[in-house]
Amino acid sequence: MAVMNRRPISAFFxxxxxxxxxxxxxxxxxxxxxxxxxxxxxVVVENGSTDY
Length: 52
Description:
- With about 50 residues, this protein is α+β, with helices and mostly antiparallel strands.
- The protein has one domain (about 10-45).
- The chain contains 1 helix and 2 strands; from the N terminus they run βαβ.
- The protein has one helix spanning about 20-35; strands at about 10-15, 40-45.
- Helix 1 (about 20-35) links the parallel strand 1 (about 10-15) and strand 2 (about 40-45).
């Protein structure tokens, strides 16, 4: 699929005790972002998790 949006996209995900799912969520977000924009970032904000 051709890149449709030339504007940068930021995907923001807050997380708390998501150690078991965060990696797959980021990977899925990257797949989608690559289809939507040529410049993108994924920001994951952790807030005191204890499952690391």
